[in-house]
Design a protein that fits this description.
single chain, 254 residues, alpha/beta, Rossmann fold, 2 domains
Length: 254
């Protein structure tokens, strides 16, 4: 299909919500001209397998978008310049460091690449019915893009979406047994429990995070002021008593 013929695009991450949305769109016969997914390079191996399973199940190819420069480059090696003032344009640090809740540089680069050459299309967005509140908080230069939220219209909650996918044989290799969301394995928005599970069940990914953490210059932390090594020390010293479990997973004591 030619670019100017693509009118309806699915924003697909591969998580339970976007997967359920895609399957339901196709089952209902809704127009779907392209299915776009952004490969951060930080996905779980199980997610790559899930993408292949979705292609086999639907008979549709995913358009996989890759960043022009890897996220590792942006995190560790990109020269960061001063944005204003007398030192504007001067390099003040090397590497953006870990993405943070207050500075999600990764999200901006993902959206820019995902929407590239499709600004005039109508986008299906997999926001679940119980995430309706997130619509009012969205602020982005991409707000003018026409978007449709089918899961909200269909009143499909996150729980509904997961069951819908499970019923059709999608399991993500067990990722949802350990995480509420199966985004990038190194996402700083993961809860303490999820990070603990990452270290316990996915040691290769945790080891990679420790290596990157050690390479970041002027490390301002992975999760707030805490570096991955801080979390490693906290997790490795974990006592199984209820008191220790409380202090490990209670967000207020971090």
């Amino acid at each position: 299909m030619k670019d100017d013929e693509i009118k309806y695009v699915v924003s697909f991450s591969g998580g339970k919500d976007s997967t359920a949305m895609l399957l339901m769109l196709l089952e209902k016969g809704c127009p779907v001209d392209e299915i776009r997914v952004f490969d951060t390079g930080w996905e779980f191996p199980q997610m790559y397998e899930h993408w292949k399973q979705v292609e086999e199940y639907t008979g549709r190819k995913l358009t996989i978008i890759h960043p022009k420069k890897s996220f590792v480059y942006w995190m560790l090696y990109h020269p960061v310049t001063v944005g204003s003032g007398e030192n504007k344009g001067k390099v003040h640090r090397i590497g953006c460091g870990w993405p943070m809740a207050s500075l999600r540089w990764c999200t901006g680069k993902k959206m820019a690449a995902l929407y590239r050459n499709r600004l005039d299309a109508t986008w299906y967005i997999g926001l679940a019915y119980d995430e309706y509140h997130r619509l009012s908080k969205s602020s982005s230069r991409f707000n003018l893009i026409k978007k449709i939220y089918p899961l909200i219209d269909w009143r499909m909650s996150e729980k509904d979406c997961l069951k819908y996918c499970y019923d059709r044989g999608f399991t993500w290799g067990g990722l949802y047994n350990h995480f509420d969301r199966v985004s990038c394995f190194c996402c700083p928005l993961k809860s303490l429990t999820e990070l603990y599970n990452l270290r316990k069940y996915y040691p290769e990914q945790w080891k990679q995070m420790l290596e990157w953490d050690a390479m970041i210059k002027d490390n301002k932390g992975f999760r707030g002021q805490y570096t991955v090594h801080d979390l490693e020390n906290r997790f490795s010293n974990l006592d199984k008593s209820k008191e220790e479990q409380y202090f490990l997973f209670n967000e207020d004591v971090m």
